[in-house]
From TrEMBL:
Residues 35-429 form the Aminotransferase class V domain. InterPro entries: Aminotrans_V_dom, PyrdxlP-dep_Trfase, PyrdxlP-dep_Trfase_major, PyrdxlP-dep_Trfase_small. This is Aminotransferase class V-fold PLP-dependent enzyme. It comes from the Bacteria. One of its GO terms (molecular function) is transaminase activity. Its cofactor is pyridoxal 5'-phosphate. Gene3D superfamilies: Aspartate Aminotransferase, domain 1 (3.90.1150.10), Type I PLP-dependent aspartate aminotransferase-like (Major domain) (3.40.640.10). Keywords: Aminotransferase, Pyridoxal phosphate, Transferase. SUPFAM superfamilies: PLP-dependent transferases.
């Protein structure tokens, strides 16, 4: 493991790990091309520098009179204000710091008024698909809508489902802003309008949207937004749930403990009486992740200062380059819900005839130093709907993905990129993929602990 620092390629934001060298199974090494941004984006150098500068001043938040505690408390709360500004929050909205998008949506699920009807498309990431059916949720009936074939179909399906509601109890729609599988942009504004037309609220899963496009809560009209720091060029371990305060104030604390409580008194008959906070602190019990919150705020500032218009424009040139390159290769099928002309962020998933996706991803890494993702991307119903019966029809047996009895392996390869991706990494990916598709892998592979890996002690495959 080695790394060095150098200036980023023109047009890129500086990120950590830009010059990490990856060993190649065929000998030597190569500059690692990180093309798995949809899972976790590398941290911006600016974010890391800000965190390092703060580290000597680390102190307990909201619990100390000393200088470091006061400084950390101010930093934590100013980070909340920075995130609110980045998201275009309304004056009465709350910004709650969580651990991740998954944590944010589970928090909201626990805060729903009892019996809330929830509507969600089967195309969602599991973080948005599953919390409403979990034991910790207060949701009532959960309606899972089928994968739409176009943005218009998505709006029509939601409108129809909400129109069929019986009664006027609380309802919530959960929808992604950009698919973590196809990268396609969803019609958030139109879906929000449909929800509000029928008295429902909407929470936006912006995990894949916020790193690529501006998200304005007030302008879109969404009721809540959730995202993760580690996809927004900040380190792991922090996320955000931002939006309307009323349901959050009315719900029991997500976690019970210090910070969430305003006053605790011994009850006359034994036990304790608790007065809970009504601010965001109500759902932030325990010592908060100050560094995580500050890192997210730093990333928000860095993206804002870089200018989203410029970032989006450059990313779209990379998207076009990837799609054009994939179209030139035989047997490559790009996955899409909304069609070839759909707008998307820098996320593209595909399958290749004659290849299992785990085998292809392993060869890209081991032979070319290129990191992509393979599998079902924590969106199993969506990937299965996109692949259908064709998903494993022509796959090689080498390193096939796990499947149930009587099932063929269904999985895909995902390449994803963003503000820290240099042009040459995209070019290397397309060249390496072309070489593998046309000439095959140069090394034998086998499955170990469920993963496709280069066979130890093997010899290169004869040309």
């Amino acid at each position: 493991m080695s790394a060095s620092t150098s200036a980023p390629a023109p047009g890129c934001l500086p990120v950590l790990g830009r010059d990490v060298r990856a060993p190649l199974v065929t000998g030597g090494d190569a500059e690692y091309a990180a093309l798995d941004y949809a899972a976790s984006a590398p941290a911006l150098q600016r974010v890391w520098d800000d965190v390092a500068a703060y580290a000597p001043y680390y102190g307990s938040v909201h619990r100390g009179a000393g200088y470091l505690s006061q400084l950390s408390t101010e930093l934590f709360e100013s980070s909340r204000a920075t995130v609110a500004g980045f998201l275009g929050c309304r004056p009465d909205d709350q910004v709650v710091f969580t651990r991740s998008t998954t944590d944010s949506l589970n928090l909201l699920a626990a805060a729903l008024p009892p019996g809330t009807e929830v509507y969600v498309f089967e195309t969602e990431h599991h973080a948005a698909l599953l919390p409403w059916q979990h034991g910790g949720s207060a949701a009532g009936r959960v309606t899972v809508l089928p994968a739409p074939g176009s943005p218009g179909q998505a709006v029509a399906a939601l409108d129809s489902a909400l129109a069929a509601r019986v009664g006027d109890g609380p309802a919530l729609v959960c929808v992604t802003g950009a698919s973590n599988v196809t990268g396609e942009l969803w019609p958030v504004r139109e879906l929000t309008a449909a929800a509000h037309r029928h008295g429902a609220r909407l929470v936006l899963d912006a995990a894949q949207l916020a790193p690529h496009h501006p998200v304005d809560v007030a302008d879109l009209g969404v009721d809540w937004v959730a995202f993760s720091g580690h996809k927004l060029y900040a380190p792991f371990g922090a996320g955000v749930l931002a939006g309307r305060a009323d349901w959050l104030r009315a719900a029991p604390p997500y976690l019970a403990g210090g910070g969430a409580s305003r006053r605790v008194l011994r009850a006359a008959g034994g036990g304790v009486d608790v007065e809970w906070q009504t601010t965001a602190a109500r759902h932030e019990a325990g010592s908060p992740n100050v560094i995580g919150a500050y890192a997210i705020a730093s990333a928000c500032r860095a993206l804002t200062e870089a200018g989203f218009d410029a970032l989006v424009a450059r990313e779209q040139t990379l998207v076009a380059r990837v799609l054009a390159g994939l179209a030139e290769l035989p047997g490559v099928r790009v996955l899409s819900l909304f069609g070839a002309d759909a707008a998307r962020v820098g996320v593209v998933s595909f399958v290749v005839d004659g290849w299992s996706s785990p085998h292809l991803a392993a060869a890209l890494s081991a032979e070319h130093g290129i990191g992509v993702r393979d599998g079902l991307f924590c969106a199993h119903p969506l990937v299965r709907a996109l692949l259908g019966d064709a998903g494993g029809s022509a796959e090689s047996a080498a390193c096939g993905g796990a499947a149930g009895d009587g099932e063929r392996p269904l999985n895909a390869v995902r390449v994803s990129f963003g503000a820290g991706t240099p042009d040459e990494h995209v070019d290397r990916f397309l060249a390496a993929l072309g070489s593998l598709v046309r000439d095959g892998a140069r090394w034998p592979y086998r499955t170990v602990d469920g993963r496709c890996v280069p066979a130890a002690g093997a010899e290169p495959v004869a040309a």
